[in-house]
Design a protein that fits this description.
By secondary structure, the protein is of the alpha+beta class. It contains 5 helices and 26 strands. The strands form 7 sheets. It has a 6-stranded mixed beta sheet with strand order 19-26-25-21-22-23, with no helix packed on it. Strand 16 and strand 17 form a beta hairpin. Helix 2 packs antiparallel against helix 3, helix 3 packs antiparallel against helix 5 and helix 4 runs antiparallel to helix 5. The N and C termini lie far apart (90 Å).
């Protein structure tokens, strides 16, 4: 019988007649005469599956473990037997799936393996059970000995079905006409239940934990009826800026993807493939390629024929330090992208494909998009000053090497020793300036513990502090940037003074001696 409680389980009322075969032979406690087993699960002629329509209150569907399916459309006042004619006799109606796409549309999963009938049974109705269609012939994808425990229809795409069998997962893009394996890295195990939540497929297995297919959107867009997948960039879901904490240890689940999940399909993987991310102004901020240009900080993109999945961590380009630099408590990685519209550009050989990508903040956050934009703008301002500092360091080192080379050449040619004297003086000035810009004693990752941070490291640390937390920076961060910028301006002026007062005259000596000039531009 169906029982209903109007007060959270304090009192109950029976709202149906007996909806089973009510056979006495199936209601005895098993195990006699030696040992009774009274756990209850071995007793049959029970209502085994039950659903109320989410769109129509009072529409009740009840399936029994002895092969009967009933429907009430008046809140239990009357019941109609709508059992499909070809349901296996006394089979278990294990799961009822009421479609989100149309009233009266439902699917049921039935099995009878306890009596050695291992055939898969999935039935579909579009008219409240007046007519039923068997979707599993045993020859259209799901093997004839893979009995089915659960079936679900994708609420975002009518006719896209998922089936959980005794031996793993299957899906159908065409309302059960054809079924395809959907195993991927899922263990071969009984699938006992499934739930689709926010375009994620949550799977319960028998003894193998919970599994999540974390984004079903590619199945909503790809035409799976064809034999070949054409090259395409699929429209991505909204990407959320958030902070995720994950379990650790050998038995921890895989972490959820943190960023934008991007899908694209390739007819072949022979041509060069690049994925570019442009900001709201159309400026390309990140590039990932199968043949990356490391000098341009391009990331590696691994591809294969067919469907490809790439997760962008929502970070733009980071700081640009000189090679071999070491920092104390500073992260020079990418700056977080602000919320708003972005553009994805997939380039495959000479062809190009684009899709819009929206970046949004975690809806649970109380801060505003303006707060995150303030964080981004300050981070970019710090980055600009840091890069200027390290560009000066790089230029200084190049000039110093040229000056030393000129001195070496003049000595080899037996020229005026004054060139060597002036070269040593200029190199010494460059050494002194470099020591103010960067800690020159750092040679390994732990060295910054022993030596004080110079101005470049202080810019990097401020950059890390501003980017560490998703929020509007406090006033102290702005004040610190102003202090460091003023200090850097003094050093920039010192660098210019060396170029104007020492390097220019030095070039005059080199010119008079017939030596190559120092390129100070």
């Amino acid at each position: 019988y169906v029982h209903r409680s109007p007060d959270g389980g304090r009192t109950w009322e029976v709202i149906s007649p007996d909806l089973t075969t009510n056979k006495d032979d199936y209601q005895n406690i098993p195990g006699e005469p030696i040992q009774h087993d009274h756990t209850g699960v071995e007793l049959y002629t029970t209502i085994f599956a039950f659903e109320e329509s989410p769109r129509t209150p009072g529409e009740l569907w009840a399936g029994s473990d002895d092969g009967l399916l009933h429907l009430s459309r008046d809140n239990g006042k009357s019941w109609q037997n709508i059992t499909p004619a070809n349901v296996p006799t006394e089979g278990t109606i294990n799961m009822i799936e009421l479609s989100a796409h149309a009233p009266g549309r439902a699917l049921i999963a039935v099995y009878k393996y306890r009596e050695n009938d291992f055939r898969p049974y999935i039935f579909l109705t579009n008219d409240y059970g007046k007519n039923w269609k068997l979707l599993t012939s045993g020859k259209n994808g799901i093997p004839e000995d893979y009995f089915v425990r659960v079936v679900r229809e994708d609420p975002y795409k009518k006719g896209l079905l998922y089936a959980g069998t005794e031996f793993g997962m299957f899906f159908s893009p065409d309302e059960g006409s054809n079924w395809y394996p959907f195993q991927l890295n899922l263990p071969i195990t009984p699938i006992t239940d499934m739930l689709i939540k926010n375009k994620d497929l949550v799977v319960a297995t028998q003894g193998r934990s919970f599994w999540i297919m974390d984004d079903l959107s590619p199945l909503h867009q790809i035409d799976l009826k064809g034999d070949k997948l054409k090259t395409a960039l699929l429209k991505p879901e909204t990407a959320y800026r958030t902070q995720l904490s994950n379990f650790r240890g050998n038995n921890a689940p895989d972490p959820a993807p943190n960023g934008a999940v991007i899908y694209f399909t390739l007819e072949n993987s022979e041509a060069k493939v690049s994925l570019k991310i442009a900001d709201a102004k159309g400026q390309v901020r990140r590039v990932f390629s199968t043949k990356p240009d490391r000098s341009q900080n391009e990331g590696r993109l691994n591809v294969q024929k067919g469907l490809n999945r790439f997760v962008w961590d929502l970070k733009y380009e980071g700081l640009n330090p000189q090679p071999g630099s070491f920092f104390s408590l500073a992260n020079t990685g990418g700056i977080m992208a602000p919320t708003g519209q972005h553009t994805l550009i997939l380039e495959v050989g000479e062809a190009s494909y684009t899709q819009p990508l929206k970046v949004a903040k975690d809806p649970r956050w109380t801060l505003s998009d303006e707060d995150l934009m303030a964080q981004y703008e300050l981070g970019m301002a710090i980055k600009t000053r840091f890069n200027a500092c390290h560009d000066m360091i790089g230029r200084l080192r190049t000039l110093r090497n040229q000056v030393k080379d000129a001195a070496t050449r003049s000595k080899e040619l037996g020229l005026n020793s004054e060139i060597q004297t002036k070269a040593r003086s200029i190199a010494n000035r460059f050494d002194q300036l470099e020591a103010k810009l960067i800690q020159t004693k750092n040679e390994a990752g732990q060295d910054p513990i022993n030596y004080p941070s110079m101005i470049d490291d202080q810019f990097a640390y401020l950059y890390s502090v501003v980017n560490a937390q998703d929020d509007r920076p406090n006033q102290g961060a702005y004040d610190r940037l102003e202090d460091l910028s003023k200090a850097l301006a003094v050093l920039e002026a010192e660098f210019k003074q060396i170029l104007d007062t020492e390097l220019v005259p030095f070039n005059t000596y080199l010119s008079a001696s017939g030596l190559t000039l120092i390129d100070s531009k």
